[in-house]
Amino acid sequence: MSTTRAVSTTASENASLDRENLAGQIYAIRLRRNIRNPKWLFWVTFKYLTLLLGAVAVLVPPYAVFMASFKTLDEYYANSKVALPESFFNFDNYIKVFTDGDLGLAFFNTGSILLISLFFTIVFGTQVAYVLSRFSFFGKRLVLLAYVIAMVIPAVTTQVATFEVIKALGLINHKASVILLYVGADVVMIYVFLQFMKGIPLELDEAAKMEGASYFLIYWKIILPLLKPAIATIVILRTIFIYNDFYFPLLYLPEQSQVTVSTALYKFTSVFGTEWTTISAGIIVILIPSITVFLLLQKQIYAGVTNGAVKG
Amino acid sequence: MYKPTLKQQQRIIVFAFLALPLTLLFVFSYYPASQLFYLSVTDWNGYAPTKDFVGLENYLYLWEEPDQLNPLLVTLYYFVGAVVQLVLSLWFAVLINSKLAGRNLFKTLLFIPFVLNAVAASMVFQIFYQVDGAFDNFLQTVGLGSLVQPWLMDPDVVNWALVGASVWRYLGFNLILFYGVLQSIPQDQYEAAKIEGASEWQQFRWITLPSIKLVIGLQVLLAFVGSLSVFEIPMIITKGANGTKTFVMATLETAFNFNDFGLASAMAVLLLVIVILFMILQKVLFSEEKAS
After folding, report:
1. What is the model's pLDDT at position A109?
2. CATH number of the domain that residue B122 is part of
3. Contact status of B109 with chain A (Cβ, < 8 Å)
4. pTM score, two decimals?
5. Integer angstrom CA distances of residue A305 from B176, B178, B192
6. What integer pLDDT is reported at residue A286 of this predicted model?
């Protein structure tokens, strides 16, 4: 029994090997023919050249900052800015950004703002989407319209008046200010959730209703778990947005005790003056979480960005 | 039998699930937007209890003092940059979508700046563009030393330098949108075209381009709105010096530094109107395209 299976496996392996060989040979023949074609050669070279130039353009600026973060200030000014540092084990700059630059506090503040905002964004977003996609009620079209029109208003222009609202609520220098704005003024999430709701069959709701489940239970036990992929998309999009946002904290959280990663780094030029090596270390510290998360969740991030933009 | 209770239940859940989100939407989106129009006809200074009605004075001031509108022209640099960025990203997207060694590596590299922190990314360029900084040193290293110049000091160059930083940061976003649509074009269309002997350009012109028309429209709109609302890059790198102040920066400065919320609101209304007009224009162009 086992021998026959082994034999058949090798046979199929051989067949696939042959096929690979054949594909390889065809490829080699094509390549040999193409390489003699100057037009083809020109295009291939041109393609890779542009990609290479693009890659260099992307890499050189952060590369220089990375190198600077390991240099002493004297070394930075004495040598070429694109040269390697004397030692990659000089962590003085990195220590300094945490002791003198308040980066620890900044990460704590951004972290708490992020977690609370995400929580409410998910709760409100899924609830609104559930109600809008499952019930018909008086004023439903109006609510939908309200979300459509809100998307057209660019937040960047309305802050002059939003400032008055935040001030009237007494929330300047309170994290609640930016949390409310992150949660309340985000409209794209409604679309992502609504889109996903369409894919959840109504029969599931009906069946649960037959069993005597309340609407809240249906939302909690059926809809919410099925919305997980949409929630993941929103978490990714909002995390990138909130971690990277500079505008809201600059306006509403000016006090030093409320710095976020963005505003803490922004203040570096006044704290460290022209100590570009220390500033470089601060930049790298703030870039590392983004790059790590991106490399881990690349696929989801591509999908999330595409969804968010096309629906938004 | 259960109908009345279900009906009641439904009313409760609709109310419970919508009340807070809608309140937030109105307080932080609609109220400020409407308040903007109201403030724009007052002389409010940001803290006084009274707001005196001044009619269209703020708008007239914008009209009579074109200096106030100069930052609007800075938008043009970024719009040119955005067009270049669109063309480049489309080129790279087509390449990455074709048979290519290391396509994932290139995709990752080109996209990654988009997910980076805005302040960190801007400060990378603040350091990169310094006099005798990394950019100059890099140019000297590759034998282009003649191009070296004070990138952030020369008013003729600085806006283009900032546009470069902007293209660096946002190209990946366009790339991913284009790539997503390119992926959705059925491969057999290309196979058929190849059999018919269509060149790569013909394939692009007659298969790819028609399929990505809608996305191009969307991206032009995003590019336009983006150019109008540029803020972080010039704010962080030059603080608006040497003629790099953008309209959003000028608006915030008028409000928070000069305490003229009335005038700042008028500027914000102007920006809002331009953005909405462009959106309508784009919608009209689109429906016509669809009809023909």
Report:
1. 96
2. 1.10.3720.10
3. yes
4. 0.85
5. 8, 12, 32
6. 94
Q: What is the ipTM of this complex?
A: 0.86
Domain that holds residue B107: 72-291
Shortest Cα distance, chain A CAs vs residue B261, angstroms: 7
As a whole number, mean pLDDT of residues A84-101 equals: 87
A214 to chain B: which residues are within 8 Å by CB? 9
Which of B276, B268, B252, B275 shows the shortest CA–CA distance to B58?
B268
Per-window interface: A 243-302 vs B, CB < 8 A: 243-247, 251, 261-263, 265-266, 268, 276, 279-280, 283, 286-287, 290-291, 293-295, 298, 301-302
Number of domains in chain B: 1
Amino acid (one-letter) located at B250? A
Does residue B24 form part of some domain? no
Each residue's pLDDT tens digit, B36-47: 999 999 888 877
pLDDT of A312 > 50? The answer is no
